[in-house]
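Follow-up to my post from last week.
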Amino acid sequence: MSQSQDFFDRPATLRLILNSLYVICALLVGLDFVIHRHTEHPWEGLYGFYPIYGFIGCVILVLVAKWMRKGLMREEDYYQQTRESKTENTHGGD
Amino acid sequence: MVGIELPPFLLFYLGAVIALLGGATWRGPAMIVVIILSALNLWQLPAFYGLETQLMGMELKPIHIDRLSLLFGYLFHIAAFISVIYSLHVKDKMQQVAAMLYAGSALGAVFAGDLLTLFIFWEMLAVTSVFLIWAGRSDKAYSAGMRYLIAQVISGMLLLVGVILYYQHQGTLMFSKIGLDSIASWFIFIAFGIKCAFPFFHNWLTDAYPEATPTGTVFLSAFTTKVAVYAMARGFPGTEMLVYIGATMACFPIFFAVIENDLRRVLAYSLINQIGFMMVGIGIGTELGINGAVAHAFNDVIFKGLLFMSMGAVLYRTGRINGSELGGLYKSMPKTAVLCIIGAASISAFPLFSGFVSKSMIMSAALKDNFDVVWLLLLFASAGVFHHAGIKIPYFAFFAHDSGIRCKEAPWNMLLAMSIAAALCLTIGIFPQLLYQHLPFATDYSAYDVSHILTQTQLLFFSALAFVWLNLKGMYPPELPSTNLDVDWLYRRPLPRLINAVGRSCLKVDQVARNGILSIGRAFENRLANLHGNDGIFSRTISISSMVAWVVTLLAVLLVFRFI
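User reply:
Got it. Predicted complex:
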């Protein structure tokens, strides 16, 4: 059995999953106009507040995290390297 | 059992002794029996059971049971039961003994009625749990365990100082609401805060938990932080500062979680994020807020345990845990994948899963008390949780690109433990009353109304949509083998360097000072040598006749003076 035959590797499955996600998202936004939600905060009552907030929040989260990588990312053995080079140094010093 | 009333922690400590003496084959089963007996003991203890004693004139109450501590007591039994089943295949005496002592210490801490007893179990938690990290038996695990232990012991020392000052000030050691109004209470607050993984004090957690053994991390995730949450709920309810600290804790770790490669470290960051929600609930301090925080702590132990167990199973079977090296494991470990997804759905607070019924309490409490900005931050954090824990963990481990790894499904005991946890997640999610009726305050709260369900589902599905969109656009940061700098960088890089530099400069000053003094001494010595050496003024030889001449001269001068 080749790998491409596994269920989640088939392009058709992927398409199905994505399409159902799109349909569900559309339905959920649609429900906002049908169901009267009780709200405690003025913004909550806005149509599509939660979907928009969730989507934008996540995009910002990922973009900021990506940008953080520029400043914070180091090689995998960053901390161990320090220790090894330190032991080398002490050996050199001796 | 009926009629015998044992302190709740005692059977666990006895279990540790049994584990220490017992043979490898029945050590695990014996531990399970002990946990069941201990749960029965706790169940049959009378309500408001307590022990009181005196020590050097101080009133102590080593055991005190009320609704708050009882719920945590049951929770720790469940957590210990699941974790021991999960680690039944382990034949490592050190880990098993440490685990029993650790769980017992957690019980001792939540049932401590006075601050001195709390302090003792607080330190026991630190000392016993570090062996679960060292059991990783690598250089990394050893040094991470050391840093973990230092952080925990500092927390313990601060607690001790706080308790002593508190006793001087208040004249009592009873552990009830403390509130932030004296120096003593600040010491205690910070001590609790370190174990709660407050911002800037959080790296002991993200540093050490991912270095423990696959089974050790499951134990670790259940106890230490939850004892701290309990202590905070008892000592500092309604402290407004906790709301802002909690909101910070809920938000900042998710950024780190998104770019972290080690999937267990992702979960460690997400643990801080969940504690943030609990801190907000405690800080609000209303009945709804406290109930929400405690309920969320209960659920978090189970779903976070489930997630740590699924990643532990992956690590156990493949030897790898980095997102960059995993993928496609659903083919080899389909059951683990399904159980992991249940944990992921619970932590993301999907309706019908346990996170939903407790997180929504905290959100409602925040809105009711007009913490609008905090509510928005928590909403952002909820979407973020789904992003990094709900999607990222299962996606990069079990789906994503196929890593080509083919391994066996997790062992039966791991699957059993995960199944129990998953069943609890679903049961509490579907029948929240089972949990609500045991909360500290009576509640008629209902998470399941149309608005809640709809809004939460919208939030989550559009977070998923964002994930898909970013992935399709190629904007999602790939998993990369990397280390991300966090606050721990300060004490792992500049601080040791600073200490080295200070040490070196001290050495230099010392050397200069020594050289200076030595050279002065040497100059003095040289001078003496010059004076006394060959041709020195003091070593010249003078003839007797000239000596006599000088004496006569001297006497003559004296004679002259006599006459003047």
